[in-house]
Specification:
The protein has 12 helices and 6 strands. By secondary structure, the chain is α/β, with parallel strands linked by helices. The two termini are 12 Å apart.
């Protein structure tokens, strides 16, 4: 019997991609007021430079394992008490500046000072734009009290907690919040899912994982034999990882939970 629901955070409950997109749009728009450039072209170049730089650092393997993407590096501070996070904290100021400076250069603008200014502006814009999917609170309101709820998110504790600080109304819904960077391993590592179950005193049959990422949320759940729900809002292609259920909107969870209850009684 399902007693608990584990939720992913980014792009499951919080619309992180939109927040990043809006922060880029605002920062690049600001840049276009100084120079005659197309804001969307600057965004494209900065994203490319950020990805390339990110993979070149010694911390890349760690960020992959914990699940921290390049655009989180453009606004996170990584003030976590761990050697790998300390390295990231040292790297990110240069990383941010370089991403924007190189993005400008790709458009023929050589202005390091302005690049540094944009690098500081982007985190401010990102903090101003926390988006939550409109159905998130409706669904959590209906689940609270009926199921135990755990938030299982990849990333740096400092950064994930910042996201929760700017959307404080999310936190009270959860009995437990588990951040991969605090545990030392990220989804899809089975040990993280086993740890989540032990925090809730549950067996794998008593919980279900809901997330948007096949390669982290769904793969991790399937590795320990736990049921999973893939939220596929943008009609992504499936790969070799097969979720137990697939939905396009969080409210589609309710028929699944009802069906799971009926299976026990039948």
């Amino acid at each position: 019997m399902v007693k608990a629901i584990f939720f992913d955070l980014d792009d499951t409950l919080l619309w992180d991609q939109k927040s990043v997109k809006e922060a880029f749009a605002a920062t690049c728009q600001y840049a276009s007021e100084k120079y005659d450039i197309d804001p969307s072209e600057l965004e494209e170049y900065v994203r490319k430079e950020a990805r390339d730089l990110y993979t070149s650092y010694e911390t890349y393997e760690f960020t992959q394992m914990i699940g921290i993407n390049p655009f989180e590096g453009l606004w996170g501070n990584f003030l976590d008490d761990d050697d790998n996070f300390r390295k990231m904290k040292e790297i990110v100021p240069t990383y941010r500046k370089e991403s924007w400076i190189r993005g400008l250069k790709a458009l023929g603008i050589h202005d390091e000072e302005f690049g540094a200014e944009l690098a500081e502006r982007f985190p401010e814009e990102r903090r101003k734009t926390p988006f939550v999917y409109e159905e998130t609170f409706t669904v959590l309101n209906q689940l609270k009290g009926k199921y135990k709820l755990l938030l299982l998110t990849n990333g740096s504790p400092d950064l994930q907690n910042t996201k929760l600080d700017i959307t404080p109304e999310l936190v009270p819904y959860f009995d437990e919040i588990l951040i991969s960077g605090a545990f030392g391993r990220g989804k899809p590592d089975p040990s993280l899912f086993e740890h989540a179950l032990s925090l809730m005193n549950l067996s794998k049959e008593e919980a279900i994982m809901v997330g948007d990422n096949l390669m982290t949320d769904i793969l991790g759940a399937s590795r320990i034999g736990m049921k999973s729900v893939w939220i596929n809002r943008h009609n992504k292609e499936r790969n070799e990882v097969i979720p137990t259920y697939e939905i396009t909107h969080l409210e589609e969870l309710f028929p699944i939970l009802d069906e799971l209850k009926e299976n026990i009684h039948s």
